[in-house]
Amino acid sequence: MEKKTIWIGLTVILIIALSLFIYQFNKVDVEKLSLCLKEKQAKMYGTYWCLHCQNQKKEFGEWFKNIDYIECTEKELECTAAGVTGYPTWVIQGQKYPGELSFKQLAEFSGCQLN
Question: I need a labelling partner for 72 at 20 to 30 A (CA). Which of 15, 64, 80, 114 fits?
Fold first, then answer.
């Protein structure tokens, strides 16, 4: 019975260690991505009432401060001039990308690295 307990314990430790390794390997450096998007002059057009915009902001957390965000309820003419018809809309390197984008998509469209 004691050998079984040891094996179970070792298996649990191995699973935890493997999970931590996978988490670290797949962890996105949000600060680095946000700074890269800023450097590439990416813009996010949105509104305060848009749930997808709120989700996008939450994903970046404190690093959303690095994102060039245009609030379309306050800058309606700027949004119209940019051809924004839905929220959020990202403009990256002259291309429009409507909708809530994953970090992977943002990195791909901008040429930024995730890790």
Answer: 114
| Rounded Cα distance, 3 and 6, in Å | 5
Classify residue 94 as left (phi > 0), alpha (psi -120 to 50) or beta: left
Spatial separation of the C-alpha atoms in residues 86 and 111, rounded to whole Å? 24
Question: b/e for 51-61, b at 16 or more Cβ within 10 A?
Answer: ebbeebbebbe
Say if pTM beats, i.e. exceeds, 0.85: no
For 71, other C-beta atoms within 10 Å of its C-beta total 15
pLDDT in tens, 8-20: 766 666 565 444 4
d(CA 46, CA 111): 22
Q: Per residue in 29-54, pLDDT tens? A: 999 999 999 999 999 999 999 999 99
Q: Outline where DSSP puts E strands in 1-115.
A: 43-46, 68-71, 89-92, 95-98
Bridge partners, residue 95, by sequence: 92
